[in-house]
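We emphasize that the prediction below concerns an isolated chain of 149 residues; any contacts that depend on oligomerization or on bound cofactors are therefore not represented. The input was used exactly as deposited, without trimming of termini.
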Amino acid sequence: MEVKHTYNLDLEWQKDRIGLISSPQLNEKVTVATPPEFPKGVEGIWSPEHLFTGAVLSCFMTTFLAMAEYSNLEFSKFDCKAEGVLEKVDGKFKMSEIILRPSIDLNDESKKDRAIRLMEKAEAACLISNSITSSVSMDFSPIQVSEPV
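Result of the prediction step, given as a token string:
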């Protein structure tokens, strides 16, 4: 694998606080807008804050899936919720924290600790988490580790 990769995006302003993101490398476009918590924000459209949180979440997922495959961890379902926290820090808005809440259905209950360790390793290895100043943490309290029915 090469050491350097580039990911190209284009943004076209549509109207008001709404734009359209596209990439010459992808087929789908994403409508983005100022979130409704801000003046002239728009409800129901992806915001930069959603995309930022989604970048961490999707990186965690892809890193975990690669590690689980390499480690031969068998599971029937994996999902994860994420909460991005936006707050004012030193007078500036900042995405200060991303909280990941993973859930996994294992084929063998005795693999729970191993699955949690792999998720912790995946979060630590996630290139997006390693590229930002926001704190990224995991909350395993709601984790649903169960054998498939």
